[in-house]
From TrEMBL:
UniProt topology in membrane: Multi-pass membrane protein
Entry keyword Transmembrane: yes
Protein's name in the database: Inositolphosphotransferase Aur1/Ipt1 domain-containing protein
Keywords: Membrane, Transmembrane, Transmembrane helix
GO cellular component, one term: membrane
Transmembrane helix found in the keyword field: yes
Transmembrane regions listed in the UniProt entry: 21-41, 53-75, 107-127, 175-193, 205-226, 275-295, 302-323, 329-347
Localization per record: Membrane
Amino acid sequence: MTMQIELPAQRSLLGAIFWRNRLFLSIVALYVLAGVGVSLAKNVSFWSGTVPVLLGILDIFKLMLISFATIWIIWRFIYAATSVKPEKPIHWLLADLRGAVLNSMNLVDGTLCFMAVGFMAATFTFFKDLIPSFQPFSWDPQFAELDRFLHGGVDAWTLLWPVFGTPLFTTVLNAAYHAWFILLYVAVFVAAFDRRDPERSMAFLVAFSLTWIVGGTVLATLFSSAGPVYYQAFGFGDTFAAQMQKLAELNEISPVWSLEVQQILLDNYRADGPVRGISAMPSMHVATSVLLALFAFSYSRVLGWAMAVFAGSILIGSVHLGWHYAVDGYFSIVIAGICWWFAKTLAKRFSDPSY
């Protein structure tokens, strides 16, 4: 009898969770189905490359869960000691923790959405590896020329070098470029689990998915390009050889980790290795950093401006480290802005109970 009562309730709970996340989950599901369809059409394995990414996302999820749980417990303990001041602090903390854990809707919400991002990331990797088979790298000369047109007839990196072309600044920019990965998944985790403002969370998750799909797959394929670092490797000339040589010289003094990553990608591309995705236009580092800033502004102006500064450092680093042409970043800012606006519009509409 108990099972007959509990099972419908559980089904109702799961149905409610899927329903209120239907916009984001539908976008991800269609993207994954597109990936499976392309894999069948091109007779290439979809799961051989995506499963390792999914396992990696699962590891990130576990790490995030432990980290945020630890921070939350410490915060609640401090809150109890300074504000509540209960007679039995441990009992209060355990009851508080039990209340949070039993809030099953938010927990399932967060887990479902975070893992959906994992499927999206895995599908993105699948498509990124296939870009050269759809459209060989060909836009690099045009983007390099457009860069020079916009920057007074010189390559954008030459304008940055007098300021940032030191061992310390280059290492700092590279560190920020790597920190992007951590901040990206922190933001995803927050959006997935913080449902105090469901419309805000949904807007970010939808904008996040649209930016990767439209920018990182559709536009990246249409404007297939490798970036300044690979300009010579793909037969476009030695235009950026001086920049890469200067970075190599700085690496002798202070670490420039991007150089190793760039070489690994090129080696894997040539050997058809596991990590071989190369794509310059648009810059997903820049696009998603702009999204992080817009999301942060929805929490506070201070946090928003801090993330805006971070996004600016990513834009500078993307050019300075040879990953991107400046126009890649400019275009990415526009893409992120449009996706954020469109996602907010959709999230507002789908949050309407009558819709």
